[in-house]
Amino acid sequence: MALAGPASAGPADITVTAFSLDPPVLMKGDTGTLTVSVANHGAVPVAVRSARLYSSGVVALNDPYLSVGDIGAGTNRTFTFTVRADGGEGTFFPPFVLDFRDGAGSLRYPIPIRVEDTPLSASVISKPDAFSEGRTADITVRVGNPRPNAASGVQVVPQGTGFTATPTGGFIGALAPDASGTVTFNLTPAAETDVTFQVVWHNGINTRTTDLVLPIAFGEDKRQADPVITNVEVMPEAGRYRIVGDVMNVGLESARSVLVTPGAPATPTDPFRVYVIGTLDPDDVSSFEVTFKADAGVTEVPIIVEYRDDNGNRYTATRMVEVGGAAMPLEEQEGGIPVVGVIVAVLLALGIAGTIYYSWRRT
Amino acid sequence: METGLLRVLLNPGRFFEGRMQGEPSLKIPALIALVIGLIGAVSAVLIVNITIAMLPADMQAFGMIGAVFAAAFGVIGGFLNWFVFGIVFYLISMVFKGQGSLTRTLEFVGYGFLPQVFGGIIGAVFSYQLLSNLTIPAATTPEQIVEFSESLASTLATDPLAQIAGIVTILFMVWSANIWIFGMKYARNLSTRDAALTVGIPVGLYILYLLITLTGWL
Fold this sequence. Notes:
Chain A has 363 residues and is mostly beta strands.
């Protein structure tokens, strides 16, 4: 309760002893509750006809007190008004007026009411360098209270489509003047979109919001794993190719579940359809080996490195490898062994053995 | 003559025994060496053709010269083999106190090359089968030609068809060796045992070399 000075008119024993406004500072359009306390310091009761609050920047929404009656000697009386800030910003002085009976005049007391439209401020204080589809990113939102009065029930709710956020809302609670609070969200975008962090708070009984828009644009993470294939050697073999080489992670984060496999138009074949490397830490290198078939007209095939980040998101890196400079492998016969050739060889062996046997028998 | 040549293959003992009645003649053995040389030339030209196909158009003329040289070396190779085997057998048989002229030895060794004609034809078919499955990339730099040649060698060495062709070569070599044993027995007047050693030692070493090459131990 604010302490008030002496009344300006009326019986000298009646004074406004205190008044209060909830919330202490209104925003434009806010509704508040003004409480005015009047005390009779005299030895006799004072008859009061009415108590009113006149509009000046703020509007009293409830009816005036038209039959107040006596205020007993040494007692207090409280008058409550619902007010709404219909004007602009600034400090307004709507007069509180007590009319006394029997022509005793009135007590007029201007109540200072402050209206300030400054909202809570919200800002993103932490986010990744770049967003990727399906990759979870930590986003921290800070909410500050630049208003002269406290805000209550402060919460931050991410809104929009094309993403999921955990938690779905963050609660900060009361924010004193010049105080701040933070909320961290795990945000997983499914597409490029705008995420609106809506700050909701209460100024007295009034609910207010402030929006903070964060555009989600996909880009390349400067720290993400970056597997590079090097030292490639193509070895044509009967019926297939064999490619050996090295994979090095030149990124700043680990590449997990790393697999190396030949892509179309190559057809992977045993024994190395796919080469499993596992985790490749930054600056680590691992050799790989893949085997595959390719048609005669194929001059280069893609070697694909698949890997995941710490959150399990899958990525691929591809390098084209020329195979046209090498001899095309032979078309593999059925079962890998030329059956006709084997049969011819066996028949020849039998025939020659028989001929040799015959030649010695005839000697 | 067909009956005569068939006797070389089926009954070499009787054949050489009969030949010992007349004067040595190198005409038919030379003809056999020529046929083997021609078959070898065809195989060599097949290989050279791959290199020619790889060369740029303006260099293909040089490739043709290479093919001619390959054919020439193939023909000469037929005669070279004949003389080398003949001289080697002649020299080894000297250890067993063999008696008989070098001409007679060369004559009988030449007859012993007859199975190689069939071996050469079958080998050429295998080579054609092997090489016809290859697609020849166009090479523009000497490095690419070298790379291709190396990969071709690797392919030919590891291909099952090439290995079977190697085994067939060994089989016909064994057949030839069998004929040479009879030939050396009469040409150098050796016992069967000495003739077998005269032929068996160099041919055995040659077959051992072929086996080592086939299995890739070298």
